[in-house]
Amino acid sequence: MIKLLAFVPSLLVLGAAMFLQEAGNTPETQPFKVPPELVGKTNPVKPTPEGMAHAAKMWTYDCAICHGATGDGNGELAHDMKPAPKDYRDPASLKGLSDGELFYIIQKGKDQMPAEGDRAKPDDIWNMVSLVRSFAKK
């Protein structure tokens, strides 16, 4: 029993060290890394009126509050965000981002942006990529 009592503080110290190490390894502190198979990937889903309408509906529910209804980056919550959302109407805001990278950002989230995750099917996310790209074409 005494050996067990002497062992408990060691376990507590080890557990605390593991917790602190894990706490410092949050998504916010990890570098954002898109999987290699998505870097440079082109959108495999051809936009259809139905797909774009569904993406626009998703945008209204999930994205416009920060990114603005037209993708201008001036949603209701945008003024409190650091960094502020980009203005997707400006083609330069997406320069250097492949469709695959946009897909990953929408699916997994980035910085303050929450992930769509499993709530959206891959085709829905690809349609969202097309919608985001369409803001700069207007």
Automatic annotation (TrEMBL):
Domain of life the protein comes from: Bacteria
Record-annotated membrane-spanning stretches: none
Print the keywords alphabetically: Heme, Iron, Metal-binding, Signal
- Domain named Cytochrome c is located at 50-136
Q: Give one Pfam family, short name only.
A: Cytochrome_CBB3
Name the source organism: Silvibacterium bohemicum
Q: In the record, which residues are listed under signal peptide?
A: 1-22
Reply yes or no: does the keyword Repressor apply. Answer: no
Query: Which is an annotated GO molecular function term of this record?
Result: metal ion binding
PROSITE patterns per record: CYTC (PS51007)
- Name-wise, this protein is Mono/diheme cytochrome c family protein
